[in-house]
Design brief:
Length: 564
């Protein structure tokens, strides 16, 4: 029986359990998406207003579900505007499926028709653009190639270290039909392509790590985004409590353990907690899981911070190239984080553990108190304009453990990375692969669509929200009660921090009035100019069953005062 490529695409998505598509139809994609008109009960389509925002939404879907978020749109704009969110997915290790076209109209790519992206003379070379920011890119010139390409793209997006994968199709493929039983090579169910167990630690390495953990006098665990990918939250806490090992995280690993836990150290590095940095620098054993120990998290690979000549480093990562990448290591393990930690826990439980865990916890709590762990003076400031730290404190005190916090690029994420104390594993969604300013407004849309029963709080600066104002219109259209907290200091603060005060250029502008903008779109807008107005505004927003913007005038404090 003949089926269209669009119908076969829908079949594959349903079988793979992918139930949302994000994008803007254009080029050949409206033809391809026609079949989805009959699948509204199984596949929800979300119309974005910008390809970059659609990519951020697909990225969020991948983070929250572990399945590829589907990004659809016309080739040139997916490869240019959409690249904004695709590179975040690529550099952060988030699964994404990109379906787009070459817009090679009328079979005339050699003569450069309008918006052609085939790579021929007179056109844009979209295949090479996509290859530069994906794990896998293929060009489909017929229906069978397209169907095989989609299956392989899903496989590559989710196998090993996740990431985006792209299927480009010639224009005529979008309307093609094919008898699935007559395809060459033969078409199989996608489940057979995905039945691959993740890499797993060897029993010998498990025993070695257990020995090293029991022998260590001052071990520390450092966690990255791989913990979120592997959903290894239970294992992290169990291992920490079993041997009394303190737990720090990278920026993107934030909330891999609830930062209210006695053994949690918060984030590390230049914008991290002093406690985390102190414990890491004095450790004799570093167990790094799901993190490549990147420069941003290790004070630009400072030799005075992590010291492989004096510390033993064990590194566990799903990507073998990440182990021993930034520092020489004692032992490198290629493994899924959840599987590795579970096996290490079982090995430790089979042994006699003589570590005084209660004493380790008591000593750590004393250190935290001495170093003002999440209690720095600026959090309690009553200054006007409002200090950014005070905003973080009040948000922290008003949110519940079940709330989701979506961070943005720019200084606002640094204030929250440093000062916000997560109450639950996975509470923070933190872009950081590319950390493009403006991620939070559209990504919060997807977070709320996928979690209608949870509060979603999107944190942005004025620069990020200004780039993606259409997100407010989307929140209104889809009736999403998102709370947007905007730290408004009328500047591109992160950039301005690197300019001398008397030589600031292209970083300041008149203060935007997001309260009026929100109201004009049909959302609720609340202006906050004094510290004691923050909590009432948050309460009002949380009780409002619609999108709400809290526009908070803050100081343009430089982020570098966080350096610890």
């Amino acid at each position: 029986m003949l089926k269209t490529t669009g119908a076969l695409l829908a079949d594959i998505l349903e079988e793979a359990g992918i139930d949302h598509i994000f994008g803007l139809p254009g080029g050949a994609t409206p033809i391809l998406l026609d079949a989805l008109a009959d699948r509204k009960n199984t596949i929800k389509t979300v119309l974005a207003r910008h390809e970059g925002g659609a990519a951020c939404m697909a990225d969020m879907y991948g983070r929250l579900t572990g399945k590829p978020g589907v990004l659809v749109g016309q080739g040139l704009w997916i490869g240019t505007s959409g690249a904004y969110g695709i590179v975040e997915s690529y550099l952060s290790g988030v699964p994404m499926l990109i379906i787009t076209d070459l817009s090679d109209y009328a079979g005339l790519p050699q003569f450069a028709p309008y918006q052609d992206a085939s790579g021929d003379y007179g056109s844009v070379d979209l295949p090479n653009i996509m290859k530069s920011m994906t794990k896998y890119t293929t060009v489909a010139t017929n229906a069978a190639q397209f169907i095989h390409g989609v299956k392989l793209a899903i496989k590559h997006a989710t196998t090993g270290r996740p990431g985006p994968a792209c299927v480009l199709l010639n224009f005529e493929v979008s309307a093609a039909t094919i008898d699935p039983d007559a395809a060459n090579p033969r078409l199989y169910h996608i489940s057979g392509h995905l039945s691959t167990s993740p890499a797993c630690i060897s029993p010998r390495d498990v025993e070695n790590i257990a020995d090293m953990l029991l022998d260590a006098k001052a071990p520390v665990m450092i966690l990255g985004r791989g913990i979120h990918d592997g959903r290894a939250y239970t294992e992290v806490q169990e291992l920490a409590e079993l041997v009394g090992i303190p737990v720090a995280t990278s920026y993107m690993g934030k909330s891999a353990i609830a930062e209210t836990h006695d053994l949690a150290l918060g984030t590390m590095g230049a914008i991290g907690q002093k406690t985390a940095n102190e414990i890491i620098s004095k450790a004799d054993l570093v167990l790094a899981v799901g993190t490549c120990l990147s420069p941003e998290n290790t004070k630009m690979l400072s030799p005075d911070f992590i010291r492989p000549d004096k510390q033993k480093i064990i590194q566990i990562d799903i990507e073998p190239r990440n182990t021993g990448w930034t520092y020489p290591i004692e032992l490198g393990i290629t493994s899924d984080a959840k599987l590795a930690l579970r096996m290490i826990i079982e090995a430790l439980r089979s042994r006699s553990i003589t570590i005084d865990v209660k004493q380790r916890i008591a000593d750590l709590k004393k250190t935290k108190s001495q170093m003002q762990f999440f209690r720095e003076d600026a959090l309690f400031s009553d200054e006007t304009p409002i200090r950014p730290e005070r905003v973080v404190r009040d948000v922290n005190e008003m949110i519940d453990a079940d709330d989701l916090i979506v961070l943005d690029g720019g200084n606002n994420r640094m204030w929250f990375a440093h000062h916000f104390q997560s109450k639950r594993c996975g509470q923070i969604i933190a872009p950081g692969g590319a950390a493009g300013v403006g991620y939070a407004p559209p990504a919060s849309i997807a977070a709320k669509i996928l979690n209608p029963g949870r509060r979603v709080i999107g944190i942005s600066g004025d620069g990020g929200m200004m780039m993606h104002l259409y997100s407010l219109e989307m929140a209104k259209q889809y009736e999403l009660a998102i709370t947007y907290v905007i730290m408004n200091n009328a500047c591109l603060g992160n950039v301005m921090d690197y300019q001398a005060p008397e030589r600031r250029i292209m970083t300041q502008y008149p203060q935007p009035d997001f309260t009026e903008i929100a109201r004009g779109i049909g959302c609720k807008g609340i202006k906050v100019e004094k510290p004691d107005e923050i909590k009432p505004a948050l309460k009002e927003a949380f009780e409002n069953n619609a999108a709400t913007v809290i526009d908070i005038t803050v100081q343009d404090c430089p982020h570098f005062i966080l350096m610890s």
